[in-house]
Amino acid sequence: MRLRQAPDTIVTTLFIPTITDENYEPLAGVEVFGRRGSLSGVTDALGQVRLAAIQGDTLQLRALGVVVEQYVVRDDLAPFLLLSTKNPAVARLKPVRMLYNDARPDLTAASTQTIYNRDLNRLPVASFLNALSGRVAGMTTNQSSGQPGLDEVTPNLLGMRPLVVIDGIPRDLTIFDLEEIESVTVLKDALSTVMLGARSSNGVLNVTTRKGTPSLPRVSFTVQSAVQQPLKQPKALNAYNYSVLNNEARRNDGLAPGYSDAALQAYQDGSDPFGFPDVDWRKQVLKKSSRLDRYTLSATGGNSFSKYFVSLEHLSQSGLLKESDINPYSTTNTFKSYVVRSNVDLQLNAKLSAGIHLLGRIVDTNEPGLNALLDAANLGPGTATNSIFNALVNTPNNAYPIYNEDGSFGGSQAFQNNLWGQTINSGYQTSYRRDMLADFYLKRTLDEFVPGLYLKAVGSYYTNVSENINRSKVYPVFQRRTPVTNPVTYQQFGVVGQQINAVAGAVQFRTDYVELSAGYDHQFGAHGVNAVLLANRQNSVSGRNLPYTFTGGSGRLAYNFEEKYVAEFAFGLNGSNRYTSDDKPKLGFFPAAGLAWNISREEFMQSATWLSHLKLFGSYGKTGNDNPGDFVYIQRYFETGQPTFGTSGGTQAALSESALANTNITWEKANKLNAGIQGALLNGHLGFTLEYYNNKFYDLLIQRGRNTTLLGNFYPNENIGQNRYSGFTGQLTWQQGSQDFNYYVTGNIGIQKSEVLYADEVFRPYDWMRRTGQQVGQPFGYQADGLFQSADEIAGAATLVGYRPQPGDVRYKDLNSDGVIDQFDQAPMGTTKPLVPFGADFGVRFHSFDLSALVQGVLNRNIYLSGGAEYAFLNNNGVSQVFEQHLDRWTPDNPGASYPRLNIGSNPNNQAFSTYWQHRNNYARLKNVELGYSLPLSISRRVRVQGLRVFTSATNLVTVSEYSRIDPEVFNNGYPQQRLFNLGLNIKL
Predict the structure, then answer these.
(1) DSSP letter at 874?
(2) Which of 91, 383, 606, 975 gives 20 to 30 Å between its CA and that of 229?
(3) Which pLDDT score is estimated for 252?
(4) 447-486 burial string, b = 16+ CB within 10 Å, else e?
């Protein structure tokens, strides 16, 4: 910024910069040293400091005594001086967003990790969960579909799926404007989550939305447009190769070939495309690319009375399905969302503050209809798109022509649903979802009675309504018949039907939340106390279901002495209305405690100039997981139709007994131990965190393995299971830079081991059959031992009971040497090593250019391939598709094949659950690369903007996988993941 100088050009007027992080969030406590190295000031809660400076002065910015940045005062100096949260010292200035209050990073023993807005917005994604991939130590994410609107990742934190909490309230809401998120704080241990009580066991993704600050209005507009390209898909064989392999499979099964030599020749030379078609259905039905467009407008600012943050976003994402101009409506698969956020905070007087936080969301999806008048209740977003992708696996290239000679849709008795017709001529389906969220709070400080004391009341209401509209229509297909004499005739399958217009399901969900809390935060002398005590209630209703109500209280107390020693205690006392209260209270008590020691504050560490910060911390606690089902303690009966009694033909309504009631059911529990060390070295440039965890989950709801079928009924789940999850997580960061050059490198890793401690399993005569002691979710199956090569080899081998193998069939190990392959030969499949998720993030800024990259991956991971995309000729009476991997099938001339001999339909031996179809799936993915250019401030001011940045990025650019034939996350015929090439523009006013 330009400084106004006095006439002698030596003394300047007052300079008041605002010091923020890279997300423009104010940083309090930054020390600014000006001319001659003297302390000029410390930033306040708004990140502002009053300085006197002249041109050429060097401002040195320190966080907690560590020099983190230097700025030279000059005309193009921005009013906002940015510090990177990648620097460990700057990160320690940021408050840790706990569940119901904030804590200083040095003054808590809890295990947390925070991802800030700038990192979240690097990926053009709809859900904030997708933006966390590769950034959280100990968390894996798996995106099993790339379908617009259904492409959200499944997160797994230390072995469990975490709960999403937004602004202090558990919510089922993950797809909204990423720019409205200030941070996502990952809460990992019992101490950080136990205030949720019976919902605290799985960890928490604590989302904090952005709030305004007293400042001049700042407006930001971002526009992005991306091209999406599908990643790996199954590669189908052409009609000729399909027919050759089909004949071979039929011969292997002792059947006559289905294709004559003349037919094979016709498929090979393409002389009769209507009688002997060869259609690449993926090329016919799917586009090579699609679009994603995003527009975001936000504004923030305020004064001493009111602060605001408002944003408006529109996201439009098209899918891969082609469409035709024969329709006046769209039949492709699309996802569109509109999100508006308004966070307004008011300072009503010196002691009373209030807030109104609103969210509105509209989500619309579209896709083709279905060539069947299905029950409306079975339809929903993604149904038709999934149906088309399933048909792509089951439809060979020679099944039928796209169109017959007369222009009608091709088909046959075996294929009465033309794929192209289903894509463009089956009508369409739309789904609508409307969300409304309103949070209110009122806070009164009581400093006149006790300094640091306050009372706070919170109320929230959230509702959404979803509706599916089915406008499908049916159409006939025709199969050409070649008579001895002309003319050509066609056989019709199906009928012409009118387009229906039906509501395919409308569901309303609503939840209300109330909370009353008292808090205390004060430092007196060498002693500091941060505490909160609250009572809350959350009531949720979905459709016609009975309300699901959580009620209780919780609290947290943190004490520190001289900011060196920290003791912390937290508890949750709550429960739900899903349990009987006849012989036990509905509320459960869940305590946790932790200790921390800031070693670097000790006097004996002051001489260690290489050490900037060092903290030891640990916690232990009991957490809960509410997983009972709906009123399972009540014995229930359901109508089962109207059976006929006697010989007169009369009918009577009948009832059937559901699973046995469990009157002793309660919440699942976990005892969690966490210990870690955190520090920074070399003048704060190198930061590290290393943690160990050991979590025992018990009272898990499972069915007893030793139940008897003599009862003739289903047994209930009981609280008897026990599992253990243990391992290490670590994070390492190096950050260094100056006013014109800055870079960082950060990496994280997790080592996750699990063990089944107790499962009440049935007696198993051999050690390899026992589930207890194995990893949680460990698959068991036959141990493949190659392929049989000859009849002589088969004659001397153990074989599957009831199956007579042929050469080329899968051979299995006879583990108990009894001469047969049966359940006693099933053993653990795949690696038993700990799962290792990892990620790495890199960024550099040089003058006006910035570059960042993110890598994400997993080690010691297995995948199991099955179904129509893996097995040849599996479905549709043996006439489904085959793929490139089937060319390497076993024949006498190809004994080292990767695929067994071909056969028609299912094969109980070759397709048995075994290690033959399991593959190691270690992979690393270059998740995101972004290059940006920011217009120099001296130029942008000429066009009256505070900042202008152009950027381009690529998502899922490169993947290195141990099993490279398929995508490591999407396999078995899922909608493929997308590679995105994105171009964007951000303007700040």
Answers:
(1) -
(2) 383
(3) 95
(4) eeeeebbbebebebebebebebbbbbbbbbbbbbeeeeee
